[in-house]
Design brief:
Blueprint (H helix, E strand, L loop, with lengths): L2 H12 L2 H16 L10 H14 L1 H33 L1 H14 L8 H8 L3 H25 L3 H9 L4 H38 L6 H10 L3 H36 L1
Helix pairs in contact: 3-11, 4-5, 4-7, 4-9, 4-10, 6-7, 7-9, 8-9, 9-10, 9-11, 10-11
Length: 259
């Protein structure tokens, strides 16, 4: 094993030091009774509750419902964001027409839309998907537009010299140049829509989901259920982040090989 491989493995293990220390401190405080046991349950109690949620299938129902909403909202928001971002980036006329309105729209806090969404679409899955679509829309539009408008003029000049059509220029010059920015927007949309999923389930309480699991634990003062739900939210978010980063690296390698 090379020195760089050893350093990389060491770096990965170092990332576990802080979580392990936090768990040990949590266990010690709970065991010593320093904090009210109703407020800070022991890690063993959380593990017991988590196991029960897994074996009874409650976790999988809640997680499946949350992920279904998340990916639906993500796909709708990303598709709309790619289209709007491309129009804003490619057409100066459309940018002058819609750009100021979009810039105003993106300044409105996402959660400020909840009252309108709840009135228009109710409290069910449709309202939550609309909310998540808005969460995914903005980062995709911004990064797609910036990526397209940031295409180097030298590349566009080469396309003009070779007599490329508009379509050829877009697919062979503009799109490859904008791809890193577009991927960043999609990555942010995935993360934002997952965070918004939990918020939507908290505020639009009808239905089943991880957010509803947290609400149930809070209402019944089951801190073990609340902490377990928080751990699930964090782990799922981490897995999404790791997956998108891996896909980004793979895409970058394929793009480099193609060039």
């Amino acid at each position: 094993m090379s020195a760089s491989d050893k350093a990389g493995n060491g770096g990965r293990w170092r990332g576990l030091v802080l979580p392990a220390a936090a768990i040990l401190l949590w266990w010690a405080l709970a065991r010593a009774g320093v904090v009210n046991s109703a407020l800070l349950v022991s890690p063993a109690k959380v593990a017991e509750t988590g196991l029960d949620q897994i074996l009874t299938g409650k976790l999988w129902r809640a997680l499946g419902a949350s992920l279904a909403r998340e990916f639906t909202g993500f796909l709708i928001g990303t598709a709309a964001g790619l289209l709007l971002g491309a129009l804003l980036g490619l057409s100066r006329w459309f940018n002058r027409l819609a750009g100021p309105s979009f810039n105003t729209f993106k300044q409105i806090s996402l959660f400020a839309w909840i009252p309108l969404i709840s009135v228009w679409f109710g409290l069910g899955d449709t309202a939550k998907v609309v909310f998540l679509s808005l969460a995914a829309l903005v980062p995709v539009v911004v990064n797609t537009c910036d990526g397209i408008r940031g295409t180097p003029e030298s590349l566009l000049e080469v396309a003009r010299v070779y007599g490329y059509s508009r379509a050829q220029t877009f697919f062979h010059v503009v799109l490859p140049a904008a791809a890193p920015a577009i991927f960043t927007g999609i990555y942010l949309a995935l993360i934002y829509s997952w965070l918004a999923t939990i918020g939507a389930e908290y505020l639009l309480v009808a239905g089943v989901g991880i957010g509803n699991l947290l609400i149930e634990g809070s209402e019944h003062f089951q801190m073990d259920l609340v902490i377990f739900g928080m751990i699930v939210v964090g782990v799922v978010g981490w897995l999404m982040n790791a997956l998108t980063r891996r896909l980004e690296q793979r895409f970058a390698r394929l793009r480099g090989a193609a060039q």
